[in-house]
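Hi team,

Filling in the usual template for the complex we talked about on Friday. All components are listed, including any nucleic acid strands or ligand strings, so the model treats them as one assembly.

SUBMITTER: L.P.
PURPOSE: interface mapping
COMPONENTS: two
RESIDUES: 536
SEQUENCES:
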Amino acid sequence: MKKKYISAPYLVWMALFIFAPLCLVVYFAFTDKRGNFTFENMSRLSTYAPVFLRSIILAGVATVFCLVMAYPVSYMLSRMKASRQKIMMMIIIMPMWMNFLLRTYAWMSLLERNGLINKFLGFFGVGPFNMINTNGAVILGMVYNYLPFMILPLYSTMVKIDHSLIEAAQDLGGNLYDVLTKVLIPLSMPGITTGITMVFVPSCSTFVISRMLGGDSAFMIGDLIDLQFLGNSYNPHLGSAMSLVLMVLVLLCMSLTNGFADDDSEVML
Amino acid sequence: MKALKKIYWVFILAFLYMPIFVMIAFSFNQSKSRTVWTGFTLKWYVELFKNEAIIKAFFTTMFVALIAATVATVLGTIAAVGIDAMKNWEKSLVINISYMPVVNPDIITGISLLLLFNVFKQWFDFEFGMGTLLISHITFNLPYVILSVLPKLKQMDNRVYEAALDLGCNPTQAFFKVVVPEIMPGIISGFLMALTFSIDDFIISYFNSGHAQTLPVAIYAMARRRVSPEMYALSTIIFLVILAVLLIVNMKAVKDEKDMRVKKEVK
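RESULT (copied from the run log):
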């Protein structure tokens, strides 16, 4: 039976719109305007090293916050009655149905110098604090936007953990720390690694959050790439070089956490 | 411990919902300010339907999402059937390339397609717009369809398909009467995923939409100056509609579950 040949139209599509564009990124990264081979784009990248470093650090901090915040949530969720789990899950995913640009924009009005949080604090005679246009605001925006991406994979591995294992650990004299480090965390490792990549990758490459909440102070890789393609400093060759580095960075992050878990994508809905 | 749990839930939910409540509240605000409350009004909900730019962006978004999700579902399902029948090394090669748009940051998928279209522009005469938007949406939707159809094909017993052939179906009939119903749940969840990602996508559309603005692209353009309260109003409406749909679906699921339990007990 020659069933496999019916995927031919897709294979053409894949070659043309997935594979070829990525090859173009590599091609552009190593050529100049006239199409000659060059390393110049790559060597120019060293001037942008601080931006790359800042992106990695901000995304890293946001990922840690997400993990710490999401872990108890997912655990509590996985121990609820099945019908309540569904409802709580829906409540957690619900905010994602509102466009993320608008939600981030709403954070602007919360964090501004004369924004809602400062006004609220003003009633108690505290503040005003400088919150917007700081690295903190950018991290907050990342944690806010990507927290569900951490909760979902954690939850889907934790519901599969047999509760009697945790009880057994407690019966055998394990305290909270023991139960966590010797039972719960090892068993939920696949969820942790998937969650880390699902938060780190979009955080590291964002340009919306940094531009809206970070002002000029928190320039990130995404902003740089955007500027090379649609911004003022039009230079797709340099932009491709940056994208290539970002891509390698992401692959490195993934191989570090080896976060390939293909059965979790279905819970995204 | 119980109190602690409750406090934590309140904290997390407050964190997730605070911006949404802010936006809903300010869709009823009289002035255009995003921080000063000047009184209740419904005028933005009226203005919304007069604002051609927003309505047009809304319809562009829905149109692109529906077409892209449909095309991706058909193409992706057929592709999955073919991939499922491949030899191991072919399979893993195709799957790995297919997953690139999922694994890569959106910005890379976005700029790589932009580069491709720019190269095409040297040979063909076209502008960035609906066409490029549709192609890029179909491209990033395809892996999600394949991702959700493939496992269903793996679970399927191939002998059922062979039985259909033995009983006189031709391959096409066997495909539509046996294979498709069997993998339907995967097809549907793939379609819904594609639809959701399409509606919500900003980054890839931003690089490839040209003059065809989708809602997220329009919001981003506004956010540089000020997002108009009509946009809040539209989002509030969309949010409430989805809330209603999800509530109905979930209520029905919970009720079905209860019915099942009652039936079991009766037996």
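MY TAKE: The mean pLDDT of chain A is 87. Chain A touches chain B through 85 residues (CB under 8 Å).

Thanks, L.
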